[in-house]
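Standup, Tuesday
Yesterday: got the pipeline producing structure tokens again.
Today: sanity-check two examples.
Blockers: none.

Example 1:
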Amino acid sequence: QVWQVESGEELVPAGASLRLSCAASDATFSGYNMAWFRQAAGKEREFVASIERTSGRTYYAEYVKGRFTISRDNAKKTVYLQMNSLKPEDTAVYYCAADAWPYRSVPGRTAREYGSWGQGTQVTVSS
């Protein structure tokens, strides 16, 4: 997958909302589960959310559940992450990712299960 992101960095105050997008150039986009991961400075990349390739079922890390929403538009070949009630601890580089294999039934929760990554968007949430 080849990805295009809307912006490379965002600076927002605590409590703000932000939507991230990744658009794919691959015509087979709809055949892949998608996910968002994030990586804070000095820390390992961690799972944020995922969405199934066709059903639209979603999965979330506990620390973002109720605040973040992942969605996809297969016609536009785009995956979104809507982030609400942002906290300083949400500060990280956010990456969209596509499953390493097409047509898998359930998206994974580990970075090793994803084979195509966006360039990342730095999201900084001030106190």
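Example 2:
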Amino acid sequence: QVHLVESGGGLVQPGGSLRLSCAGSGLTLDYYAIGWFRQAPGKEREGVSCISMSDSSTTYADSVKGRFTISRDSAKNTVYLQMNSLKPEDTAVYYCAADNLGFCSAVLAGLNDYWGQGTQVTVSS
């Protein structure tokens, strides 16, 4: 069965780092653009980052530029989100999503074929 599995969330102090993983099961992530989203309590879901199918482009929300890095490891069929210099406002459930059109414009518009179940990131203050 086709699905995405997020992992790597946890509790960290401000200024700390986490690396989130989005692993594909039943699909090859090389053929998808992959996006990361997050949703905090009482807030709308927001796009955090995206990597295109060809890895020709990456996209970051202004709030995370310079702190987060998205990357792909084809051998492991996994996309990562490296999060550094974490802030309390980064606290949220983080989701990955995949679109087989392969463009981040589609991913960030919410037109995704698959969504993971999310992993909790908590940055204490």
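Quick observation on example 2: The mean pLDDT is 95. The longest strand covers residues 18-25.
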